[in-house]
């Protein structure tokens, strides 16, 4: 029990130390949700640039094979097109304002809504981008 309380205290201290003006990204590179990892890349590469942290996150994305090598140049320019992976959308544009699930028959698609554009994906972008 004492060990648990010590670990809880250490975790709380670590969390409180991180609540300054730093970008709000997920807690760990090993976050089980790959979408959060991809959104974190956007945070550290474009929103609040930190090249070292962005490089660590990109390495983890590549280790997980979430984005193919040929997508990175466009992602780093914020250019998303038909065929881009869903992770690539998050890495290039960040978290969407809305994430709408669309089910038609036995197919599921996700509509990612941003302030001035929307894409539909089934793991890869399948619609033209509206602006």
Features:
single chain; 131 residues; alpha+beta; three-stranded antiparallel sheet; 5 helices; 3 strands; 43% helix; globular; disordered N terminus
Description of the molecule:
By secondary structure, the chain is α+β, with helices and mostly antiparallel strands. It has one domain. 43% of the residues lie in helices and 15% in strands. The protein has five helices and three strands; from the N terminus they run αααααβββ. It has a three-stranded antiparallel sheet with strand order 1-2-3, with no helix packed on it. β1 and β2 form a beta hairpin. α2 runs antiparallel to α3 and α2 runs parallel beside α5. The N and C termini lie far apart (55 Å). The N terminus is likely disordered.
Quick synopsis:
43% of the residues lie in helices and 15% in strands. With 131 residues, the chain is α+β, with helices and mostly antiparallel strands. It has one domain (26-121).
């Amino acid at each position: 029990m004492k060990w648990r309380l010590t670990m809880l205290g250490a975790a709380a201290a670590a969390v409180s130390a991180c609540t300054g003006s730093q970008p709000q990204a997920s807690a760990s590179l090993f976050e089980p949700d790959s979408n959060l990892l991809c959104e974190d890349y956007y945070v550290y590469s474009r929103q609040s640039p930190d090249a070292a942290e962005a490089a660590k996150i990109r390495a983890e994305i590549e280790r997980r094979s979430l984005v193919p090598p040929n997508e990175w140049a466009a992602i780093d320019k914020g250019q998303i097109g038909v065929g881009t992976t869903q992770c690539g959308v998050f890495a290039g544009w960040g978290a969407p304002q809305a994430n709408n699930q669309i089910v038609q028959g036995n197919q599921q698609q996700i509509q990612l809504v941003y302030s001035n554009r929307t894409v539909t994906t089934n793991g890869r972008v399948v619609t033209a981008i509206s602006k």
